[in-house]
Amino acid sequence: MIELRNILLPTDFSEPSLKATEYALSLAHRFDATLHLMHVIEDPVVYLPMFESYPLPTKQQFETYAQDRLENWIADDDGEGLKIEIEWRHGKPHIEVIDYASDNRIDLIILGTHGRGAAAHLLLGSVAEKVVRKAPCPVLTVHPSGKQFVHAP
Question: Is the model's pTM score more than 0.70?
Answer without folding.
Answer: yes
